[in-house]
Amino acid sequence: MSTTRRSTAAVVAAALSTAVLLTSCSSSGTGSTEATGADGKTNLTVSLFGTFGLDEAGLFDEYEKLNPDVTITYESTQGENTYWPALQTKLASGNGAADVQGIEVGRIADVVANQSSKWTDLSTTVAGDQVPNYLPWKSAAATTEDGKVLGVGTDIGPMALCYRSDLLTQAGLPSAPADVAAQLGSWDDYTAMGEKFKAAAPAGTAWTDSAGGLYNAIISTQEEIYYDEAGKLVYDTNPAVKDAFDTAAAAAEQGLTAKLEQFEDPAWDKGFGGGSFATIACPAWMVGYIKGKAGDAGTGQWNVTSLPGGAGGNWGGAYLGIPKSSKNVEAAAKLVKWLTDPEQQAKVFEVGGNFPSNTGAIDLVTGTKDAYFQDAPIGQIFSAAAESAPTQILGEDDAVVKTALVQSLLSVETNGVSAADAWKNAAKTIDNQVG
After folding, report:
1. How far apart are the C-alpha atoms of 384 and 257, rounded to whole Å?
2. CATH code that applies to domain 158-313+393-433
3. CB 63 within 8 A of CB 70
4. Which pLDDT score, from 0 to 100, does residue 7 have?
5. Those residues with Cβ within 8 angstroms of residue 38's Cβ, 6 or more apart along the chain or in another chain
6. What sections of 76-205 are H helices per DSSP?
7. Number of H helices, E strands in the chain
8. What is the pLDDT of residues 20-37, one digit of tens each?
9. What's the CA gap between 340 and 131, in Å, rounded?
10. Hey, which residues does 410 pair with through a beta bridge?
11. Angle of helix 239-253 versus helix 398-415 axis, rounded to 10
């Protein structure tokens, strides 16, 4: 699925953003270091957002054991919308960025179009050896017109539907994955099933977590979203965007959502284990997030099935890049190369669900099952979703447009704003921020 042309909006196959993945991990702060510390070791700093799964899979510790002359200082910011503006400040000043920084897929078009002077061209390093090993669109999206590679892919976000089988059973609905899928031939079927759930749901439980999450799931199956192939902003004339927005707004107005803001509201995190919602749009990376938030008590409560109609979609994914300000470019590139090798990407998927973008790793994970999700064949489910995901167009301000639309949908849920007014408010915000 290689692209045939590049423009301001890079054509890629699969992922839209948002969403912005997320959890937190701790460590001391990051910033570029001297090439070696007082102990003679190279101290590499890594700064990411959310749950990339690298630390959770023990990869940093493993790398230090394999390379005793290297120490790794790691931090993760809870929300990408907080992480990215802070990183922009550091890049602009040329000071404070880590040796390795994460780049969310919704930002990569902006990086390629406007920030090549701030990032290392990885094609000149050992990390560039990974480029032929990736899905063609994944590499193409991070490559400038003159051939600079500004990021190496970690994961992609093929889509599924995660759900609480125990809550569906309590509401008298089918709960086996095949039976749930058979009921969901379309997104209209999904909301209709939500109405049935609402009528008999356990107290305090909504059908889905948020209108924004539902919107992102629907739009993830589309080819053209916010920009067209020529780089023109077309969200306001694209019927797929308006239809997805209206469907999600209607679900909110019908009381099918738990009115929670994804990744920002502590109540959303608690809802995974507390039963606040029965279903959630589930990119592969959400598997690890659910495990982390629902905890051991959630084992056997959650399950996974395909999106309504068996549609292929993609939401999310990321890259690793090395800022120009790094004093440890060679050592950082070796780390990036190792972290994105097939064996490491496969480990990350098995631990946290982040689906590989390295084709060798995809081959390794297709048979993976997850005991936490009642032995769901997640490797098969997400591989099929990745294979059938449409070729999508990414634009420079995808993340800005998406955030404005999702925030407007939140106003429908929490403030009773009408769907029509919410759409107008989102358009005003986009006009002010993008033009």
Report:
1. 28
2. 3.40.190.10
3. yes
4. 36
5. none
6. 80-93, 108-114, 136-141, 165-170, 177-183, 187-200
7. 17, 11
8. 333 333 333 344 444 666
9. 10
10. none
11. 20
Q: What distance lies between CA 195 and its chain's CA centroid?
A: 28
Output 37 or 256, whichever has higher pLDDT.
256
User: 10-157+315-388 maps to which CATH number?
Assistant: 3.40.190.10
Q: How far apart are CA 12 and CA 14, in angstroms?
A: 6
Exposure of 332 in the CB half-sphere (CA atoms within 13 A): 35
Q: How many residues does the chain have?
A: 435
DSSP 405: H
| pLDDT tens-digit series, residues 267-291 | 999 999 999 999 999 999 999 899 9
Strands 100-104 and 42-49: parallel
**Nearest-angstrom CA–CA distance, 192 and 189:** 5
Structure token digits, residue 45: 């700093």
* 110 within 8 A of 321, measured Cβ to Cβ: no
* Cα 339 from chain centroid (whole Å): 18
Mean pLDDT, the chain, whole residue set: 90
The upper half-sphere exposure of residue 74, i.e. CA atoms within 13 Å in the direction of its Cβ, equals: 25
**Number of neighbouring beta carbons within 10 Å of residue 299:** 13
Neighbours of 321 (CB within 10 A): 27
CATH 3.40.190.10 region(s) of the chain? 10-157+315-388, 158-313+393-433
Q: Which residues pair with 393 in a beta bridge?
A: 11
